[in-house]
Amino acid sequence: xxxxxxxxxxxxxxxxxxxxxxxxxxxxxxxxxxxxxxxxxxxxxxxxxxxxxxxxxxxxxxxxxxxxxxxxxxxxxxxxxxxxxxxxxxxxxxxxxxxxxxxxxxxxxxxxxxxxxxx
Length: 119
Hints:
Number of strands: 0
Helix content: over 70%
Strand content: under 5%
Protein name: Gas vesicle protein
Number of domains: 1
Keywords: Membrane, Transmembrane, Transmembrane helix
Order of helices and strands: HH
Transmembrane segments: 6-25
Shape: rod-shaped
Pfam family, one: YtxH
Largest sheet: none
InterPro entries: Desiccation-related_membrane (IPR052928), YtxH (IPR024623)
Number of helices: 2
C-alpha cells in the first residue's frame, strides 16, 4: 500500500468519523466543538510525528544504501584479489601438469612407434 493511499484513507476515515460523531452525539454544540478542537490538535500532532518518523526512516534507508554500496565494492575487490592470488598459486602446478602431459604424449608416441616396428 502506498503512503499516499494510506494518508488519504486516514484523512477520509477521520472526516467520516467526525461527521458520524457530530450526528450521533448527545452533547451540546460547544462541548462538541471543544472535543473536535482537541481531536484536531491530536490529529495534527500525530501527523507531524508520522512525518518526522518517515523522514528519519528515509534518512536511515539512504545511509544503509550508501554503506551497502561501499561494502559491495569492498567485497568485490577482495574477491578479485583472492582470485588473482589463487591463479598465481596454481600457475606452477598447472605448468607441471602440462609438462607431465607432454611427457606422457611423448612416451605414448615412442611406444606406438616401437609397437609398429617389425620384429
